[in-house]
Design a protein that fits this description.
308 residues; alpha+beta; six-stranded mixed beta sheet; elongated
Length: 308
């Protein structure tokens, strides 16, 4: 009995479905708007609606197929617009019904319900290389350092879009790259942020980032001679002792290659000399690759002024 009931219900539903789908209906459905712009040197520079509410009339089976299987599409041809065009959407498709793409069997287009009007703006399409700025949270592991800035590949990315939009962009940021502690050379990838995805096309979505790390090392530079700067013509200067020693800290590989000629120990007369003062700490000038210097020996030097 249950099987007989199911079969009867199935055939009754099928007959009802056939009868209903053969009747005429009028419905409104939301369908996409596709912009057709065949010119390579022009593009949209403002947002237009992506969908429209459109009323159709037809048999039930055709309308059902349009809603589920083959949704209609509105084609917006902007090829003849030079700069700006205010369009009444319903008037436009009443004038160009062939730009409403749908299965015309047992179904016809009636009108556009919504939106009513909007403005289309056209701009020159250009391509420009824009520098990439890396946003990251990374630090060397204890005992290591970054000898240089992270290396980006590429450093610039080609961006295509409306001239009025691209002209305002000076840099492309990356997503924040969070790596934690780094104790070895590593290359990672991070996505670029498209500042205006509705109008701009980036020739690539990500960049590679290389972090080079080196172990921290120390080296003692001994007997580095003291030199003087900005001395008046009528005096000469002697230092006691004439040389000092100190320790430099930095990239072990680079630190070990440094010699006394890589640094300068300076007494600047015009900046440091004070009458009646005898002992001074000289200026220590080291390359940027040196993280720090320390343990100056002796910590002070005697400056002897001899007038000519």
């Amino acid at each position: 009995q249950i099987v007989s009931w199911i079969i009867s219900f199935f055939f009754a539903s099928l007959i009802w479905f056939v009868i209903v789908n053969d009747k005429e209906y009028t419905i409104a459905m939301e369908i996409p708007i596709q912009v057709y712009e065949p010119r390579e040197d022009k593009t949209l520079k403002n947002k237009i609606p992506k969908t429209a509410m459109v009323r159709f009339q037809g048999k039930g089976r055709a309308l059902l197929s349009a809603k589920i299987l083959q949704k209609p599409v509105l084609i917006m041809d902007v090829a003849n617009i030079q700069q700006q065009y205010h369009v009444s959407l319903n008037d436009y498709y009443q004038k160009y019904p062939n730009r409403v793409i749908y299965n015309r069997t047992d179904m016809e287009f009636l009108e556009v319900v919504y939106p009513d009007t909007f403005t289309i703006m056209i701009d020159s399409k250009i391509t420009r290389e824009i520098p990439v700025r890396l946003e990251y949270k990374a630090r060397p592991a204890p005992g290591y350092l970054f000898p240089d800035k992270p290396l980006l590949e590429p450093e610039k990315v080609k961006v295509t879009g409306p001239e009025s939009v691209i002209s305002k962009i000076n840099v492309l940021n990356t997503q924040i790259l969070n790596t934690g502690d780094i104790n070895r050379n590593v290359t990672l990838h991070t996505d670029l942020i498209n500042p205006n995805p509705d109008f701009l096309i980036l020739n690539q979505k990500s960049v590679s980032v290389t972090f080079n790390v080196e172990s921290i090392g120390e080296k003692i530079l001994k007997d580095v001679p003291i030199i003087s700067e900005n001395i008046p013509d009528n005096i000469s200067i002697r230092f006691v002792p004439p040389a000092v020693s100190f320790k430099i800290v930095g990239s072990n590989e680079k630190i070990q290659r440094m010699t006394n000629d890589s640094v300068r120990v300076v007494f600047n007369y015009s900046e440091q000399w004070i009458p009646s003062k005898i002992y001074y700490q000289p200026y220590i000038r080291v390359p940027q690759t040196v993280m720090e210097w320390k343990d100056l020996k002796p910590s002070r030097i005697e400056v002897i002024i001899v007038r000519k």
